[in-house]
Write a structure and sequence with these properties.
With about 190 residues, the protein is of the alpha+beta class. The chain folds into two domains: about 60 residues, 3-Layer(aba) Sandwich (Aminopeptidase); about 110 residues, Archaeosine Trna-guanine Transglycosylase, Chain: A, domain 4. The protein is built from seven helices and eight strands; from the N terminus they run H-E-H-E-E-E-H-E-H-E-E-H-H-H-E. The strands form two sheets. The protein has a five-stranded mixed sheet. Strand 2 and strand 3 form a beta hairpin. The radius of gyration is 22 Å and the shape is elongated.
Length: about 190
Amino acid sequence: MPLVAEDIQVFSALVAELPSFLREYGHKLYTHTVPTSVEVETLQHHGWQIEAMMPEAYKRGVITQQWGLVMEEKVMKTMRVKRQYFNAIMAGTKPLEARVGYDSIKRIQKGDSVRLESERLSGVVQVVDVRMYKTFSEMLQHEKAGHIVPDDPAGALQVLQRIYPPEKEHLGIYIFEFKVLKGVGNRR
């Protein structure tokens, strides 16, 4: 996509605001341009990076540059979450997520970013901590049930065991403590 503006203030506004308009369409933007030195400074200031030099790509005797911008932090994993829990995580009332130890879950580490998805909504969280337990009962002796099942803390064990039958519970229980990085947005 070309970035064209009549003056540097408009160019700067375009470079700064464009990601918010196009975020739902992907995680990266790029442009092919022949920028002035002031435009280079502006692109760099807003996090864009030069990716390629393309001699005579569009015009004889002109070196076009490819600039790119990653619009979100690297997301290691996508977790699907029931809508009620997704809303609670994004609102900050459910900072803990319990999962059983599938191989993909075991790879998530403290500091990772994770995209949470529910229906057509998504948000990005950072894993602040990961704690492991053998069973849901053991986990509930150490963790606040209301931070895992905010709508039914007293029935948290039954809720979790309905989601994960005993053969899954034997994989081990992983508690992820989340911090919301990017709020709710629509996904395609």
